[in-house]
Amino acid sequence: MMQTVRISDAVRCFLLNVPKGPNLACPRETSLSGKQPSNTVLWRETLARRGGRISLVSWQGLRFTGLASAHAINGHRAWEIDRLFVSAGQDKTLNDSNGAGAKLQKSWDHAFTDFLEKLVQEAGERSGERVMLRLPFDSPCVHDARLAGFYPFFEEVLLEGQVAEDGQNAAASPLSLGVRLPHDDYGLFQLFCAGSPQQVRDGLGSTFDQWRDSQNPFRREMREWVIREKERIIGWLGLRTVDGWQEGEVMYHPDFPDALPVLLSKVLAQPVLNKWLIPDYQEMARELLLRRGLVETARYVVLVKTVAARVMAPGFAAVEA
Question: Which pTM was predicted?
Answer without folding.
Answer: 0.87
